[in-house]
Amino acid sequence: MMIAVNRFIPLAMSRSLSMAAMLAVAVTVISAPVWAQDKTSAKQPVLIDAIVAVVNTEVVTLKELNDRMALIEQRMKRQNMQMPPRDVLQKQLLERMIVTRAQMQLARESGIRIDDIMLDRAVARIAEQNQLSVQSFRDQLERDGLSFARFREEIREEITLQRLREREVDNKLQIADSEVDNYLAAAGGKPEASQQELSIAQILVRVPENASPQQIAERRKRAETAVAQLKSGTDFAKVAASFSDAGDALSGGDLGWRSVSRLPQLFVDAVEKIGDGEIAPLVRSANGFHVLKLNGRRAVGATKAGVGTMVQQTRARHILIKVNQIVSSSEARRKLAELRERLDNKAAKFEDLARLYSNDGSASKGGDLGWIYPGDTVPEFERAMNSLRPGQVSDPVESPFGYHLIEVLERKTEEVSRERQRLMARQALRDQKLEEAYEDWLRQLRDRAYVEYRLDEFSPRTQ
Question: Degrees (nearest 5) of the Cα angle 152, 154, 156?
Fold first, then answer.
């Protein structure tokens, strides 16, 4: 087919052509919809496929968009989410596909590859969590109308995007010493060891980099329209699916429970004076306009540890199984229960199992987390750890990161040093900035991409 010409341009050719030349080849070859004649009438053509968007040197086809639409609609029905108008959902989904396509292009350019062996293991874990063999799982997917090959590629894509984020955002985020100084000064030199947690849902209306005043006004109006719909009683998840440019929009925009230190300060300030279930005043950030809903608050025993304060420290190690679209909660619990049984039977050493199975960076050290201060870990982990005696191993413990087996090695009481205070402040600032940095990086990536829209009756419109 004509589409295949663009997708399989030889590597040598892609290196020799300029970006403009490559784009010209792509658009020229596949600029028109592909038609076939209906067998019953030579006068009535049948649309096979068409281009709905060009992203740099690649295309998004109508078939790809329709396939993804079907999956999203099926998922939203299963979750009993209100469906936005189909044309609105289609445009929102296309924009997400464009951003994803730009990310995948960058991942390839950066040399990020998920090989078939790693992918096979991921698929095998998904099948196992559903208590099926890989073949049975494949048969079930196909009975549900899902292509197994397509499913594998979606899993490969998700793992690739996570690796890209870690490389381009997480590992590059730096906190200046002056920011730490200001944070400590604002906190009176005593950063909170643990804090109140908030459950927030958001709708992000992204504003392009270097946007004109007219563009900013248009995006603000769009955000205000979303607020108006929410205040009229429309379901938040439905409005998020229709309006939000955030990556979690199609799952309702829910950010889940997060400590105050892990939320952008703009969000914390915006919801400070509103009640549960209320919509905050519109928030403007470098990424755009945020519509925020406060779902709830909960206390987690906030305390402060100043310089010279005597605190109990715990040396512990753990095995973490992360929960994601590859590994379910039940699978993570089951796996850790098996490992706990092996430890109880003296059939393995904790450090050996951590190196083999833990999804945490501490795995190479046998799961050893070193000396932990109060507030170093999330509340769920800290409560479970504090209930253990030295040498005791916990049952599987759930936290926002997944499920843990925790072993306490020893405890001591020591003063909190100034260096420790600065470390705590630096981590709190990092947590606050990480999500915002990711959204800012996505915006810049999207703004740098060449995008040509052809969805509206397939007439080109460039942004």
Answer: 70
Helix (H, G, I), strand (E, B) or coil at 268: helix
- Is 193-303+430-447 a CATH 3.10.50.40 domain? yes
CA distance 159 to 115: 11
Q: For 214-246, what is each residue's pLDDT tens digit?
A: 999 999 999 999 999 999 988 888 888 888 887
**Fold classification of 310-415 (topology level):** Chitinase A; domain 3 (3.10.50)
Contacts of residue 412, defined as CB under 8 A and 6 or more positions apart, other chains included, come to: 312, 313, 315, 371
Domain ranges of the chain: 2-168+452-462, 193-303+430-447, 310-415
pTM of this structure: 0.61
CA 336, chain centre distance (Å): 24
User: Do strands 310-321 and 303-304 pair parallel, antiparallel, or not at all (unpaired)?
Assistant: unpaired
Strands, sheet with 397-399, edge to edge from the N-terminal-most edge strand: 368-372, 310-321, 402-415, 397-399
Say what the pLDDT of residue 300 is.
64
Q: What are the phi and psi torsion angles at 214 (to 5°)? A: -65, -45
Residue 263's pLDDT band (boundaries 50, 70, 90)? confident
Q: Is 2 exposed, middle or buried (0-12, 13-18, 19+ CB in 10 A)?
A: exposed
- How remote is the C-alpha of 95 from its chain's centroid? 16
> Residue 90: how many CB atoms within 10 A of its CB?
18
Closest alpha carbon to 92 in 204, 3, 200, 201: 204
Rounded to 10°, the helix 177-186/418-448 angle is 120
Q: Report the top-level CATH class of 2-168+452-462.
A: mainly alpha
- Is the confidence at residue 400, as pLDDT, over 60? yes
193-303+430-447 against 310-415: fold identical: yes
**What is the rounded CA–CA span in Å between residue 375 and residue 333?**
25
